[in-house]
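Proteins fold reproducibly. Look at a concrete instance:
___
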Amino acid sequence: MPLNLSLNVVIPAAGFVQNALAGTPAEFLSRASILSVYANADQVGDTLSLTLNQGGDTQQPIPAGYNIPVAEGAGQGPVVPDDVVLNQYGVPASSRLSLGIVGTAADVVRVKIFVSP
């Protein structure tokens, strides 16, 4: 069953969110899936990372320090397909996803997650 998830992640000034997916249906994927991530922010300099843990294996589909695209207008987006961060990445069954976000100033980062079987 497909999953479409939209998040507005509040980042404190010079702060971070360790896992923006914590407690969401996208944190733990029991079935093998295809994952796409779209994101944008109002401020320049925010970064994100995506870590995938499956059993004893760890993958980093989005490496730490990936610059989040800046929105065309405050509070808008992300725009699909323009603000693509990860497109159609194969995720193995029984995986845990962790989306870390680091901000340089107080900001809201908007994320859309699409998971399909």
The CA atoms of residues 8 and 15 lie 15 Å apart. The radius of gyration is 13 Å. The chain has one domain: 3-116.
